[in-house]
Input
Amino acid sequence: MEYTILGRTGLNVTRTSFGVLPLQRVPMEEAVLILQSAFNRGINFYDTARAYSDSEEKIGRALSHVREKIIISTKSVAQKGEDLLKDLETSLKNLKTDYIDILQFHNPQFLPHTQTGDSIYTAAEKAREQGKIRFIGITNHSLKLAIEAVESDFYDTMQFPLSMISSQEDLGIIDLCKKKNIGLIAMKALSGGLITNAPLAFAFLRQFSHVVPIWGIQKMKELDQLLELDAKPPAVTEKMSAEIEKEKKELAGQFCRACGYCLPCPADIPIPMAARMSLLLNRMPWEQFLEPQWQEKMARIDACTECHHCKDHCPYGLDTPNLLRENYRYYREFLKKKSSVDPEKI
Ligand code: SF4
Ligand code: SF4
Output
């Protein structure tokens, strides 16, 4: 496998790395098998978070016996130093280790090094002095905050959503991180499932030698596909560039990236899926979304209270209630059309 140095951390990580978030949806034994297979076949970098339910425990169960051969990053959403240290202790216990390679502040709405009082940055520095963590990183969905964090020189790594449909503005973070020698971890390489052409997505990010995508893997066959791509990385051809442009055009503008920062919704609307339903219906096998349980979930949009919690927390500045209404309108029309064409399928 190819390796790259993760910026100023000096960590030598595999260019194909593992985002463990989706394994929270997989039973323990199956998750352990997938993680061990990934390790045995060469992947050495695993990214998780305190917020990803039992994904830290799965890594601990699967890989603690090879701890010194892997690199682990995790995250905390804590806003106070005391809470960050508590989270860190939980992560260490779950991961069955006595150190974390990279502790990341999980999508804060502020820059932790500017915090006063019980600062999470000061707490992380203390943990670093004690040898409990090696490096301090940050993740963000806001380009403005991401740029400020990289330019501040307070962080060793930046984790940011990057994919072949990222805007030119977003892609600017790639050169900036290189210039500042900050490790750049790319999340959402498949844009939360909207990109269905994995070879194209892989080829696009492979062009940037210092960018480390953490591919969300939840099935053995997904791991197989990524390792096949890693063994024979496709280059971006003219034909591929044209396809990327086509995808970009189709997904251009204000679409939901499924980051989930708008949750919880008091009306229990599954926003990250519901707000991009029109795209899902056109880009994935649609039958599953017309089943009664999805009809019920989409109908919850009618119960939106306009509390604006979602809108106020969306890092992409989306008018989420409106986006939900538009998607629900499209969904009902789609349902009507398909019901008249092929009712047995629904
Ligand atoms: S505005 Fe509507 S969709 Fe958004 S959080 Fe409130 S109830 Fe949920
Ligand atoms: S509406 Fe915004 S915050 Fe919610 S999932 Fe979509 S992109 Fe994320």
